[in-house]
Amino acid sequence: MDIAYCEPAGRAIYAVDFADLPAVERETWRHHLSCTECGNPAVFRKQSRDGRAACFVGKPHVDGCGLASEGGTTHGDGGTEEHDELFNPGDHIVIDLRLDLDDASKGLGPQSGQPHHRGGKSFGAGDGMRRALMHRTLRTLLRTLLRVPEFAASARLIELERKVTLPASQFFVEFGNARAVPTDQLRGFWGKIASARMKAGTIWLNTGGRGSPGLPIDAAELDNVLRIARVDELSSLEGAHMLFVGRRKEATSLAKTPYFQMDDLTRIAILVAK
Ligand SMILES: [Zn+2]
Q: DSSP string covering 104-132, please?
């Protein structure tokens, strides 16, 4: 996992930042790390030679902890070339888009017909120089944005489908700042869901008060939206945090208010506070 709570620091810390701490601090603090979800102790693993970024590992997690699946299996996809040792994979994050429904063991039928893993390697042969990359789901990125405020302001590169590569400070945009982003630019918009309503065949996830752009989703997707958020009712989404990749759109004669446009449900993560 990318983050752990560090007691002496009094806050959650990002693994790649932890790796950069002065040795003395790092050595002292490493004995005071815990999982931000379940509170069990966590250990720090430094960057490996084969390109896996620095990370934390639960030791172990409490059963059912949401971060258990982010254990020690976080890999960079880099090769083993010398080049990788000079490159910190934590500095280049590729967004791993997938339909992030709740636990597959709950019987996700094949009828959903959605690809589960559209992420994977973004750089095939023929790229010339191989690079070490970190692949992260939107859910993991949202958790990091919420727990480690300096992550959103950092210069780490965030890459989306080879279409957009921007520093985190430009890629991630809080809802309140959305209007500063030109329309039609792909960004990772995030923040609190102010309200969630069903209106005329459309689910509206609103990002603020009147005049703030809302995110429309086809009502036929309601079940999937609820599964992504791991809740049973639309009203439970109010106050939840979301991160989605989309574009800001201006109001038109048809759409009376500004809104966000998102291609499909592989582009959204929702975390409901428990
Ligand atoms: Zn845990």
A: GGGT--GGG---S---S-S--TTSSS---
Give 263 or 101, the one with higher predicted confidence. 263
Separation CA 122–CA 223 (nearest Å): 30
CA angle in degrees (0–180, nearest 5) for 153-170-122 = 105
Higher pLDDT, 134 or 172: 172
Return the pLDDT at 252.
79
Q: How far is the CA of 67 from the centre of ligand 1 (A)?
A: 5
pTM here is: 0.76
- The architecture that CATH gives domain 172-271 is Beta Barrel (2.40)
Which residues are paired to 245 by β-bridges? 188
- Ligand 1 centre distance from Cα of residue 43 (Å): 12
9-22: pLDDT as tens digits: 999 999 989 998 99
* 36 CA → ligand 1 middle, Å: 7
The rounded Å distance from CA 34 to ligand 1 centre is 8
Query: Which residues, by Cβ under 5 Å, contact ligand 1, an ion?
Result: 35, 37-38, 58, 61, 65, 67
61 CA distance to ligand 1 middle (Å): 4
Is 117 a residue whose pLDDT tops 90?
Answer: no
d(CA 30, CA 9): 11
- Cα(42)–Cα(34) distance, rounded to whole angstroms? 5
> 100 C-alpha vs ligand 1 centroid, how far in Å?
19
Ligand 1 geometric centre to CA of 1 (Å): 9
Give start and end residues of each alpha helix (H) in the chain: 15-19, 23-29, 82-86, 138-147, 149-152, 168-171, 222-229
Domain range list for the chain? 1-75, 172-271
